[in-house]
Queue: 3 jobs
Job 1
Amino acid sequence: MAEKRIAPNTVRFYIEGPKITADDFRRCVRNFLDLLNEVAADVSGKKKAVEWIISVAPGSIGLLATPRSTNGDSTVAKRIAHSIHDGVSQVSKRKTPQHFSDQALERLSELGSVVGLGDRGVSSIRMGVGRRVKEISPKSMAYVDDLLGTPTKAYGTVEGQLLALELSGRLNFGINETLTGKRVKCYFGEDVYNDVIKSLKQRVAAYGLISYRQDGSPKSIQIEKIHAFPEDSKLPKFKDIIGLFSE
């Protein structure tokens, strides 16, 4: 049977690997779709200028995302698709893409960080339009932090719940920071590995060198120490505290 013709504005997204976990697959797809929406909004100036029609590509795990205009403007779909492809190419050359917001660059960086060793989960991610498909990897996305223009680094503490542990590639996990609610990427070494494992799904305070976004919120931290707070059920109750004073 002849292969079904793919629309020219379709963004192709391929994931390969011998042991792709459900969490890795979900993370890849979420970041891919978030990236599409961020660039589409920047190109069109509207939140819902297009809707993405998702289909499955033949062969390896592949998604086809085709933008369809919501107001009949056929040119906006073409501009969006090609802006996404061109942006991925420009990032690998240390150039800031025209229609990539900070959020879009962060989603692209997240996709690159998913790729690890060939026998441990995702071994390859590719994305592009038509036959022009680009590799997304930690190496090709190495300049994202520079493009984001993180202006300040300082030692400090980030508090929040320890989530989304990543053991392939550079060791890191995510914290939903308490004050801003934004996700902070936390890098760590073997010296605090055991402490991190013990703190999974707990509220923690991570101390180290923090990189800040332009709006002043923490973006990432290189951890030197981590402390897990006790669960609410293990904290002393009010009557216990009063009892201490009555003795």
Job 2
Amino acid sequence: MVLIENKTNIKLTFEKPSINIINENKELKIISDLLTGICLEKKTTTNNNVMKSFLTKKIPSISIYDFLERIVKYSKIEKSTLVLILIYIDKLCDMNNVDITFYNIHKLILSSLVIAAKYNEDKYLSNQFFAKIGGITKKEIDNLEYQFLTLIDFSLYINDEIYYKYEDFIQKEGE
């Protein structure tokens, strides 16, 4: 499933664009609303074995918005990294024909955060710190990172055109 395909008909692949620190909650709300809307379409767990590592037994009590806000608060990621999180989740779903649900979205966000931060940020936090932000163990975040990378064939490069389509979508939704 491609997250933004319905509105922009884009496919995936990133060169590090402009650096903007997230200083507003507007982007978080837009991304949260988008991911929440997708999760509402699939209210049950997926039986896809590909996503087994990302599934939780219960839906986490923290909302997607609050989870994203927590991530930004403690990791101080750049806006471009937040956009990459969305692109990488989209890429994973598209390449593996899997669904985003409330049972897997938090771990997808967290694992894509680790990958996007390492790829995009000049300085990034340790997996131990990311695990603490996400409320899981270091061993689990290491496993999720590896599983996510495997599912996207370790393909982290996103060309400028794709990146700016996602960034423009987020900005236009905020207007």
Job 3
Amino acid sequence: MISAATILFYDVVVAVHVMSIVIAFGVTFVYPVILPWMMNVHPEALATVHEMQERIGRFVIMPFGTLALLTGIYLASDRDLFGEAWVIIPLVILVLLLGLGGAFFTPREKALAAFAERDLAAGGTLSDEYHANAKVVGIVGALSSLLVLIAIFSMVAKPFA
């Protein structure tokens, strides 16, 4: 039998889990709005913007994504939900996103910052190399945002329950 204290603790962990997802990934939905505008209106600030993205990844996305992972594991374990697709799908997505953060986004954001700094110091325009890398990061970023939305839908709607 589940006691009131267990339910209260479980509910607190659910809240921490949801807050962690919002904190970790919420800002990433702003990038497609801000980055093209920055490129057109304030290209001189792009090196700083990409350094900021890398810092957000290191100090916001990774820690809060990890907290979401740990609280999600607790929640699924406590209620024996690891056999449910609506738990497994977001779990796989979260692990994939955390892996992309370290293996893909961090090195590419650092590279974009270096390209922007180099290009603007050399002639004031962003190189084809910068634009090609920014395009790839933008595409993977958009796909990552779609995965976040799929994970949220899966957790809320439980389509395979």
